[in-house]
Amino acid sequence: MNSDSAGAVPPQPLFHTNIVPISAERHGGLRLNSESGFGFCAGAATMPIGLAEFEPASTSYPILFTDATPAAPVVLLGMREDWNLFVGETGAWTPGSYVPAIVRAFPFAILGDGAGGRQVGFEADAACISPTTGLPLFDNGQPTGVVHDAVAFCEAVETDLVAAAAFGTALERAGILEPGEATIAVEGSASARIAGYRTVDPARLATVPDNVFIEWRHKNWLPAVYAHLFSAARWVPFTELAITQLNARR
Q1: Which residue has the higher pLDDT, 126 or 186?
Q2: Which of 25, 31, 103, 124 is such that its CA lies 20 to 30 A from the CA of 179?
Q3: Structural domain boundaries enclosing 232
Q4: Residue 56 burial by Cβ neighbours in a 10 Å radius (0-12, 13-18, 19+)
Q5: Which of 207-216 are b and which e, b meaning 16 or more Cβ less than 10 Å from the residue's Cβ?
Q6: Which residues contact 210 (CB under 8 A, 6 or more apart)?
Q7: CB 67 within 8 A of CB 198
Q8: For residues 85-124, b (16+ Cβ closer than 10 Å) or e, as one string?
Q9: CB within 8 Å of 16: residues ≥ 6 apart
């Protein structure tokens, strides 16, 4: 079914399958349990990140750019599409590893209301939403700090993702992104090939004209460039983790 098909379902935000606008009338008795874990993204092998996330994410994961246009920055979390190596069987994220903002925003997301406006929605079937456990979403019909904080955070995440997209587009236009691929081989198991991504070529980066480089500096993009390059050091621990988990599943 393509986007022009009659009755086509609007695209859902990442990790959402049944997002609905939040309201006191329908959801006044619900609560948010922030301790329910990250099982909802256990199948995410990559994750979009915002511009401000490059530096903290670079200490935990390889940062890559998609091979589609525009070049969107993502962190590498798994070697195949249905397996996030950093989410355990209980839904816990690997201790000490950076948790992307788009994950922390769940189950909330900003929605269009069909009339040019925007409103906050949430995943109605999320495990972290219940009538008995956690902090209330409403108090006497009014949104609590949980909802207000969720709106502010979702808006900040959205703004940062837009900034990251502009950054990726600039790198693509500068011609400094090159295709990459990696193969993880485990003795006695089938190898896993990771492809469909791009990285900054340091040699091409060195040829960027001075006026463009200065423009990037003024836009505060250079820390993100260097964080991306620094994140290449995470390939070795990522590979070791992948091999360890593959061996554990044999």
Answers
A1: 126
A2: 103
A3: 19-249
A4: middle
A5: ebeeeebeeb
A6: none
A7: yes
A8: bbbbeebebeeeebbbbbbebbbbbbbeeeeeeeebbbbb
A9: 106, 107, 109, 123
DSSP element (H, E) containing 103: helix 101-105
In a domain, 27, yes or no: yes
Listed residue (78, 85, 42, 54) closest to 168, CA to CA: 54
10/21 Cα distance (integer angstroms): 14
Q: Give a yes or no: residue 12 inside a domain.
A: no
Task: Report the distance separating Cα 194 and Cα 79, nearest Å.
Answer: 6
Which of these ranges, 91-95, 137-141, 193-197, 208-212, has the smallest mean pLDDT? 193-197
- 24 contacts 141 by C-beta, under 8 angstroms: yes
Structure tokens that stand for 152 in this block: 């502010």
Q: What is the largest CA-CA distance in the chain?
A: 61
10 Å CB burial of residue 151 (0-12, 13-18, 19+) is: middle
Mind listing the pLDDT tens digit for each residue in 116-151?
A: 678 889 998 899 999 999 999 999 999 999 999 999
Residue 51's pLDDT band, with cuts at 50, 70 and 90, is very high
The number of distinct structural domains making up the chain is: 1
Please report whether residue 186 resides in a domain.
Answer: yes
**Whether residue 107 has a cis bond before it, omega within 30° of 0:** yes
Question: Which tokens is 134 given?
Answer: 């956690």
Q: Which pTM value belongs to this model?
A: 0.90
Tokens of 104: 């922390």
